[in-house]
Amino acid sequence: MPVLNHFDLLAPWYDKIISYQEDEEFQNWMELPINGNLLDIGGGTGRVSGSLVNKVNKLVIVDASYEMLKMANKKGFSTICALGEGLPYEGGAFERVLIVDVLHHCNDQETVFHDAWRILKPGGFLAIVEPNVDHLYGKMIRIFEMLLVMRSKFLSDRAIVSLVQESSKDITIKHVKGNSWIKVYKGC
Q1: Rounded to an integer, what distance in angstroms lies between the CA atom of residue 59 and that of residue 96?
Q2: What are the b/e assignments for 26-42, b being 16+ CB within 10 Å?
Q3: Pick from 126, 104, 118, 106: which is nearest to 183 by CA?
């Protein structure tokens, strides 16, 4: 049975339907500006990383949806069509790796984390933003995506931490408007 590609269908309207309002707070949380590179896994149209592009040397968006990347290309972003489970970069290529509202859409969340960790430079960090499943907003998103048959696999904060804690004990969690903002630092 063919699987519906929701993101290819939504691409032309995505930025109008789903906006991102936390620009300044998010930049501070990402500890920007930096003299380094940032990879946005599942960055789609660039709706989140758009406010970060002038804060890093190079910003690359990786996404599995070709139609979402076409929208990002129109905005001038550097893009690569790939899955988070198989990133086409050498180890230590990025000072920041960003995964916003994406992990629950990935088939193999553990492999996505390990590949993101592999390409992260020592001294950098991985930033994960996911709906907080214990918050009303997170519960609503979960129901909405279930109704759309998106096959999402949402993780609690505890489950995300258990996924990453083998690689790092330096983990911070912040809750913002129904989302969990999680940073995982990679030691030098």
Answers
A1: 10
A2: beebbebeeebbbbbbb
A3: 126
CA 177 to chain centre: 17
In a domain, 1, yes or no: no
- List the structure tokens of 145: 């995506």
CATH code of 58's domain? 3.40.50.150
Least Cα distance to 161 among 187, 128, 120, 137 occurs for: 128
Whether the Cβ atoms of residue 45 and residue 16 lie closer than 8 Å to each other: no
Rounded CA separation 170/185 (Å): 6
Amino acid found at 65: S
Sheet strands (E) in 10-132: 37-41, 58-63, 78-81, 94-100, 120-131
Q: What is the value of pTM for the model shown?
A: 0.88
Place of tokens 């995506």: 145
What is the C-alpha separation between 107 and 76, in angstroms, rounded? 29
DSSP code at position 76: T
Report how many domains make up the chain.
1
**pLDDT averaged per 10 residues in sequence order, the chain, 188 residues:** 55 66 84 96 91 94 92 95 94 97 91 96 96 87 75 90 91 94 94
Residue 178 inside a domain? The answer is yes
For 109-170, strand residue ranges (E) read 120-131
